[in-house]
Each structure stands twice: as structure tokens, then as C-alpha cells.
Amino acid sequence: MGAYLLRRLLLIIPTLIGIMLVNFTLTQFVPGGPIEQIVARVQGEGDVFRNIAGGGDAGQGASTERYAGAQGLPPEFIAELEREFGFDKPPVQRFLSMLWDYLRFDFGESWFRSISVVDLVIEKMPVSITLGLWSTLLAYLISIPLGIRKAVRDGTPFDTWTSSAVIVGYAIPGFLFAVLLMVLFAGGSYWQIFPLRGLTSDNWETLSAWGKVKDYLWHITLPVIASTIASFATLTLLTKNSFLDEINKQYVMTARAKGLAERRVLYGHVFRNAMLIVIAGFPSLFLGVFFGSSILIETIFSLDGLGRLGFEAAVQRDYPVIFGTLYVFGLMGLLVGILSDLTYVLVDPRIDFESRAG
Q1: Could you tell me the residue range of the domain that residue 347 belongs to?
Q2: Which of 242, 248, 247 is nearest to 277 (CA)?
Q3: What is the pLDDT of residues 32-73, one digit of tens each?
Q4: Where is the domain boundary, 80, 103, 126?
Q5: What is the pTM of this model?
């Protein structure tokens, strides 16, 4: 197992480099970069800026021709922007410099927020972790009992209509379900039961400890339900199929032949083996909910988390935030993959990845 883990850890380095290289290359061809963003803002200043900068046709030089809308701006201004953002260096040098900084977890500062990327991620992360953790726990609390029930009553009308409901739930995109929840329960057109946006109320600081807990749960209910819908469906079917596979094995027939009660057979023997894949998949499911739904759900419910941060950084072409969060997320995903393998081994010591790798 030690050699297998060492290989997996060593593979993280080339995998991360590949992820960063692909995304860095793509950004070289995407229009509307950070300099274009600033040029657009400056052009909004109109003649005021041109008078300050010297006006006239000074901006018709070669330095401005590369940037759409830069006509009328002095080439010295564009050159200064290039130096400030590091675009005066060749792409290869910029990429290698970025990798060296990221290996030391030096992600620099946001170009448009005047705050370090690390501090920005730490500030936004609790919201996304909260959303992902509650959604994953809710999915497990609902899916495991429902999946077991469906396996025990396989082929019955209960199994049929619950499967239909699960498939419909899986087919509905999380963001569309979030909009539906807002329309129904957040004052859209029907009931004003839950708040429309945010994670806390305006009077949060004045609430008691118990009041803060209730206020927090009140705000997080709709986002968590919207994030849970897809993972709930997948986990339910996974639990059912895992139980069906175990129920039909020889040791279950032997236990029944010995006269053991059905409940003891189900929860004393089948449950432990059937839950191996479900329990071991917890890290991956959490990461999937954490990354998969956070952008749209956080945007719809105005939650200031990592998903919304990434969306705003992409719109603004804030490359330090984009690449910094991409590096962190990629590293987390690779480490969670290793953690999932370790969880499999802890839950079932019979699993030997070393022999499989050989």
C-alpha cells in the first residue's frame, strides 16, 4: 500500500502541471483579458482621460493595436499595464514563474480586489464547505434508508414510483430546481417561508446563540436542498444496487437457512458489506457537491462563496484568482481521490490496491 500511495502522490505533480498548462494556454486565446478590461473602463472616462494623457492620436502606435478598443490611449499607458500584469514577458517564462510560485503556495494578489488570493479563498471557503457538507449529509440521511427500502421491496409498486421520482430528480438541473424553490417558498409567486438571499439576516449580531443557529438553518435550507437533488438520486440508486448485489449472495441464503430473523440478516450481515462502496465514496461525493453545484447555487441565492468568487474572477479575467483557485481545487480533487482509496481499505481491509497495480 505504501508504494501505491507514493506513486499516487508523485502523479499529482505532472497532473497538476497538465491542468495548469491547458488552462494557461486557453487564456492566451480568450479575448477580453485584464488589459482589455481596464481599457474598457478607461474608455468609459471619455475625453477626460484623453486630456490628462495628452489626447490626440498618440494611441495609434503598435502597442495599442493588439487591444480592441485601445485607440486613443497612449502606448506608454498600455506598456505600463503590460509590465504591471507581467504580459511583457514571454508566455513560457510567465507559465514557469507561475508554477514555481504555486509550488510554494504563493498565489499573489487579486488584480482587481487588492487582497491576496489565499486570504480571498480563506474568506469565501466556509460558505462553500458549509453548503457541500450539509448537502452531502442530507443526501446520505435520505438516500441510504430509501435505497435499502427499495432493495428489500424490489419490483413492488413502491420501488417503481420511487424510482420514477428519483430519475425525475436526477434529470432536473440543480439551478433549475433552485429557481423553482425560490418561486414556491421564497416569495416568488406563492409562499414567503424562507429568505431570498444571503446566509444570515441583517440583525445577526444582535441574535442569541440559539437565534443564530435558527437563522443560519433558515437561510441554508433552500440552497442545501437544491444542491442535494442530483447527488441524492445517484446515491439512492447506488445503495439499492449495492444491497441487491449482496442480498443475492450465498452467505445471505445461508444466514436465512439458519433461521436468523430477516432484520438481523439485513442489518447484521448485508448492511456492512453493501455499505462499503457507499461509505468509501463520501469524500468524492462531497467534493462533487462542493464543486459541481456551488457556482450556480451560490449565484442564485447570493451566497458569497468560492463558486461565486470563481465566476466573478472569470468575468473580470482576474487571472491570479482563476489560476490560484484552479490549482487549489485541482490539488484537493487529487488528494480526495487518494483519500477515497484509503477509505476503501479502512472499510474493507481485504482490498489491496498494491496487488492490483502489479
Answers
A1: 117-352
A2: 242
A3: 677 777 777 666 654 434 443 444 443 333 444 555 555 556
A4: 103
A5: 0.69
